[in-house]
Amino acid sequence: MKILLTGANGYVGMRLLPALVRNGHDVVCLVRDKRRMKADKSLQENISYYEADLLKEETLTDLPQDLDAAYYLVHSIGASADYEKLEAKAAHNFVDNIKKTNCRQIIYLSGIVNDENLSKHLRSRKNVEDILMQSQIPTTVLRAGIIIGSGGASFEIIRDLVEKLPVMIAPKWVSTKSQPIALRNVLQYLNGVLLRNEAYNRVFDIGGPEVLTYKQMLLQFAEVRKLKRYIISVPVLSPRLSSLWLYFVTSTSFKLARGLVDSMKNQVTVQHKGIEDIVQIELLTYREAVERAFNRIAQNEVISSWKDSY
C-alpha cells in the first residue's frame, strides 16, 4: 500500500516510518525540506519525498493520487503564540487536497481531551480532530496522553527534573492524574488501525495500564535511576512561574513549557475505549516504558528526538 506520512521528520513520524516500511508499505514522506530527513539508508527503496508546507496550500496541489491512507502527525505547540490558528489552517489545507486523491483513511494522533475546560493546546488538538472528521474520508483518531519513549519531550523533561533536582518545590499540577503510554504501544496502535474498517470514523483514547499522578511518575522515574528524590507540592506557583521553572531546569523552550503547563491542569485518562477490541497488544507499564527508553539510550538507538520537528 502507498501511505502518506505527514510530520515524517517529527518525533513520532521518524519512529513510525521504519515500522511502515517493515510492514511492506511504500511511504510518501511529506516534509518541508527533504534534506532534513535522517531516514536510514535501508529504507530508501520504499520511501519517497513530497516537499510541501501545509500552511501554503499552493504547495499541495499535486499530491500523489494513488494513496491508500494518510497519517496526520502535525502539531505546532511551541512553534508560535498563534499555533491554534496555524494548526487549523494546516488541517484545512490538508483536507482540501487529500480529498482529491484516492485516500481511503486518515489517521490522526491527537491528545486526550475529555475535560470540559480544556487547555489551549488540547483545545487545538480537538479542533484539528473536527476538521479531519469533516473531510468525508474515513478518519481514525487516536488520543494519547503522556507518551514515554527515548528522545520524547515528556521523557526528557521528566528526566531533566529528576536528574537535576534532589528536592523539587513543585506546582499543584503534580497531583493531576494521567495515563502514560509507552511509545512502543503508540506505534503498535498507529499500525494496527491502518485500513481497518472497524476503526473508521471513530475516536479512541489510548493509554497504558496505570493511572498515575505526575508526582508518582517523577518518583518512579527516580527509582528506575536509583535516585532518592523529594517532591513538595505548593499551590502558589502561577502558570508563568511554573513555565519558567520548567524552562530553566529542563531543555524545553519557554513557549513549549507554557503550553505543557497549561495542559497539566487537565486529567488525561482513558475514557473512549474500544481500541482493545481492534488491536490486541501487551501494554507496557510506566516503569517498563522508562526502562526500555534507557536501554535504547544505552545502545545508542535513539533515532528521533522531540526537537527534530523544529
SSE arrangement:
Elements: E1 2-6, H1 11-22, E2 26-31, E3 47-51, E4 69-72, H2 83-98, E5 106-111, H3 120-133, E6 139-144, E7 147-148, H4 153-164, E8 167-171, E9 177-178, E10 181-182, H5 183-192, E11 202-206, E12 212-213, H6 214-224, E13 230-234, H7 239-249, H8 254-263, H9 275-278, H10 286-298
Parallel strand pairs: 1-2, 1-4, 2-3, 4-5, 5-6, 6-11, 7-10, 8-13
Antiparallel strand pairs: 9-12
Helix pairs in contact: 1-5, 2-3, 4-6, 6-10, 7-8
Provide the descriptors you would attach to this structure in a database record.
310 residues; alpha/beta; seven-stranded parallel sheet; two-stranded parallel ribbon; 36% helix
Explain this structure.
The structure is a single chain. With 310 residues, the chain is α/β, with parallel strands linked by helices. Helix content is 36%, strand content 18%. It is built from ten helices and 13 strands. It has helices at residues 11-22, 83-98, 120-133, 153-164, 183-192, 214-224, 239-249, 254-263, 275-278, 286-298; strands spanning 2-6, 26-31, 47-51, 69-72, 106-111, 139-144, 147-148, 167-171, 177-178, 181-182, 202-206, 212-213, 230-234. A seven-stranded parallel sheet has the order 3-2-1-4-5-6-11, with helices on both faces. It has a two-stranded parallel sheet with strand order 7-10. It has a two-stranded parallel sheet with strand order 8-13. Helix 3 (120-133) links the parallel strand 5 and strand 6 (139-144). The chain is globular and about 55 Å long. The two termini are 29 Å apart. The mean pLDDT is 84.
